[in-house]
Amino acid sequence: TTTAAQFPITLDTIAGLSIAELAEQFGTPFYAYDAAKIVERIDDLAPFDVVRFAQKACSNLAILAWVRKHGVVVDAVSAGEVRRALAAGYDATEPMPGQPGTRQIVYTADLFDREALDLVVEHDLPVNCGSPQMIDQYGERCQALGRERGVTLRINPGFGHGHSQKTNTGGEQSKHGIWHEQVADCVERAAKWGLSIEGLHMHIGSGTDLEHLGQVCGAMEKIALEVGPSVHSISAGGGLPTPYRDGDARVEIAGYHKLWDATRDRLAEAFGHAVSLEIEPGRYLTAESGSLVAEVRTVKQMGSNLYYLVDAGFNNLARPILYGSYHPMAICHTDPAHAAGGEQDAIVGGPLCESGDIFTQEEGGFVSARRLPHAEVGDLLVIGCAGAYGYVMSSNYNSKPMAPEVMIVGGKAELIRERQTFEDIVRGENVPQWD
Ligand code: LLP
């Protein structure tokens, strides 16, 4: 077990570049991704046959192209994500170069909206069905086209676990997947349409732990034996935790892989053919690579509480207000004189007209103070581990433009998304002519 690098509370550089200079060049707030960190995490997962990035975590085209360049395939949960994958260079029908038999894009969801179903059929994409109705809707289209296809099934094993109830995707409190007791029925349903069950998939939650993830192996083995030798691939889903706090251990991939590898071996033996082992991480690949940088715009004392208010809010990073998620934070002093101010407990919030616009909130503690260096207006706040479910969950609340994204590769900072303009925000709005 290795411990993640300590996240210091003062910081001057990201991926070797001066944070103050990045802020000057791109303005604040902005997201910065250290591309090398993504590659390190991809390398950790080398024991798995297939690494499929859950792009919902961080779907900028440049990030997708970067992970593709490093051998990672992708999943898509919507028509938009299918289009992103295609735009980033993934091919709909060819296998991944160097990975025979591995399709580059898989559509994984609990339902097809009409646009997604049309797009999947148009591009003949592989489908991972999370409901009986998806099997019917896809099967009907395949039959009409005279296509004989295989599908994979996403099974809800009846239990789940996540860093928050909102990210627990197993058990009957979760809407996800095909209920484990209905697998036989779904195999029959699929057969009616001429669809074979080629693979099985389970994803029990995000930010879970190895103890719970390990239980999935047993559930997978049981279901796979029930479905039988048409199964050629199993997916362990995503959910690998990432270290957010100092001292958090990094998950031990070798041990986790060993559990799955043994499951896969037993299935291969039972079926008499090879079974491929996939993993589908989102957070694990990108969380640690990303930082949200904002400028301190107000420092004020409210009774016993000291507030640092910055120019980024939950419109930029929603995880603290949504889940009470903890993110490491550091101050980058733009004036060296400020560094002499020592440390203090501060509550860090944003500009939005809403009391919950606080980054230092944790489940159960709405406004909790954090030990941070003294900061003044003009200093920069760096929110770490923001590369997964950061930018992608941002909004235009309070008519704030979405922040730019910057990717640092080999010491060079590239703008991979421009800051929105006011025109972008109101695009498509229309004031009718009233008389
Ligand atoms: N596969 C499936 C089918 C999923 O639904 C998800 C995440 C993943 C893989 C990737 O999970 P990961 O490895 O990133 O934990 N917004 C929340 C997380 C929502 C996750 C949704 N599904 C957060 O900020 O923590």
UniProtKB/TrEMBL annotation:
The family database entries (InterPro entries) matched by this protein are listed as: Ala_racemase/Decarboxylase_C, DAP_deCOOHase_LysA, De-COase2_C, De-COase2_CS, De-COase2_N, De-COase2_pyr-phos_BS, Orn/DAP/Arg_de-COase, PLP-binding_barrel
| UniProt-annotated catalytic positions | C353 (proton donor)
Q: Pfam families attached here?
A: Orn_Arg_deC_N, Orn_DAP_Arg_deC
Reaction catalysed by this enzyme: meso-2,6-diaminopimelate + H(+) = L-lysine + CO2
Cofactor(s) listed: pyridoxal 5'-phosphate
Q: List GO molecular-function terms, semicolon-separated.
A: diaminopimelate decarboxylase activity; pyridoxal phosphate binding
Domain (Orn/DAP/Arg decarboxylase 2 C-terminal) spans: 31-387
**Domain annotation Orn/DAP/Arg decarboxylase 2 N-terminal: ranges:** 49-287
What EC number(s) are associated with this protein in UniProt?
A: 4.1.1.20
State which pathway it belongs to: Amino-acid biosynthesis; L-lysine biosynthesis via DAP pathway; L-lysine from DL-2,6-diaminopimelate: step 1/1
- Cite the binding residues for pyridoxal 5'-phosphate: G239, E280, P281, G282, R283, Y389
Q: Where does substrate bind?
A: R283, R319, Y323, E354, Y389
Q: Name one GO biological process term.
A: lysine biosynthetic process via diaminopimelate
Q: Keyword annotations for this protein?
A: Amino-acid biosynthesis, Decarboxylase, Lyase, Lysine biosynthesis, Pyridoxal phosphate
N6-(pyridoxal phosphate)lysine occurs at: K56
Q: Which EC class heads this enzyme's classification?
A: lyase
The coiled-coil segments of this chain are none
Task: Give the UniProt family note.
Answer: Belongs to the Orn/Lys/Arg decarboxylase class-II family. LysA subfamily.
Q: Which HAMAP family is this protein grouped with? A: LysA
Give the protein's function: Specifically catalyzes the decarboxylation of meso-diaminopimelate (meso-DAP) to L-lysine.
Q: What is this protein called?
A: Diaminopimelate decarboxylase
